[in-house]
Design the sequence.
């Protein structure tokens, strides 16, 4: 149980199986300055952690699992005793313990993102939310950043893209120094270069550690299926309107700079 795969370069695993014979490792991978890509593998014997505490091995590692069988109760990533930025990180694509398909998850030393069908934005297309649970290492200077969400845009008018989020169990609004969005848009005619739009607190306030301002109220209580009687619905946007200069994809992501918090995000850009 004290053994694991330790990877220093890049390892690609296809249709591999962790056997039930002998001792099953409590953590499957420990990765240094390397990466692992696994497709169609049976890891169901491992019920501890897919990625162990990587602190003593290294930080710059990425694990990607695609259409693999997982063990019941397995954790994607163990608690990290030393965190530098978002490394290590693990991506889970369409992996599950049984017959539930199209699952997605992402985790690093600052937090974990999973699909949640119990609490979700009612009018959202997916009938599921991204549930983000941050660790004690997460803060406004080293936030947990979600993967990017794309939306195809062809219009020529000004837009203010935004995400809907929910803080369940508390009616207190998050501030723009704690939770903010970033959007990438091609607003320079004749070029592919994108500009980042954000509603994060002003830089001077951020540097000085200022509290910032409350984020805007979103669709409001009752707009989320499964929400409790006490909650805050937030609307996290690009900070100001802008007009994309080129047809193509906009991208957006959320930044959560609050330690040990649980936040729900509708993974859809609205304009």
Sequence:
């Amino acid at each position: 149980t004290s053994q694991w795969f330790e990877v220093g370069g890049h390892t690609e695993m296809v249709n591999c199986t962790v056997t039930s014979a002998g001792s099953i490792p409590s953590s499957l991978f420990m990765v240094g300055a390397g990466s692992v890509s696994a497709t169609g593998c049976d890891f169901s014997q491992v019920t501890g952690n897919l990625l162990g505490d990587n602190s003593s091995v290294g930080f710059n590692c990425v694990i990607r699992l695609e259409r693999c069988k997982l063990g019941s109760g397995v954790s994607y990533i163990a608690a990290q005793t030393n965190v530098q930025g978002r490394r290590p990180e693990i991506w889970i694509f369409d992996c599950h313990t049984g017959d539930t398909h199209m699952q997605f998850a992402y985790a690093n030393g600052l937090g974990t993102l999973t699909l949640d069908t119990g609490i979700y934005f009612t009018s959202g297309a997916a009938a599921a939310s991204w549930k983000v649970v941050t660790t004690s290492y997460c803060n406004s200077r080293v936030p947990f950043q979600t993967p990017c969400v794309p939306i195809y845009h062809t219009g020529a008018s000004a837009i203010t893209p935004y995400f809907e989020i929910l803080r369940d169990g508390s009616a207190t609004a998050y501030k723009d120094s704690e939770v903010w969005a970033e959007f990438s848009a091609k607003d320079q005619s004749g070029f592919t270069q994108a500009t980042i739009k954000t509603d994060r607190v002003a830089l001077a306030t951020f540097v000085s550690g200022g509290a910032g301002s409350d984020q805007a109220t979103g669709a409001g209580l009752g707009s989320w299926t499964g929400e409790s009687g006490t909650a805050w619905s937030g609307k996290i946007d690009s900070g100001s309107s802008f007009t994309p200069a080129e047809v193509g994809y906009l991208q957006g992501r959320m930044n959560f700079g609050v330690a040990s918090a649980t936040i729900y995000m509708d993974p859809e850009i609205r304009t």
Summary: The chain is about 0% helix and 40% strand.
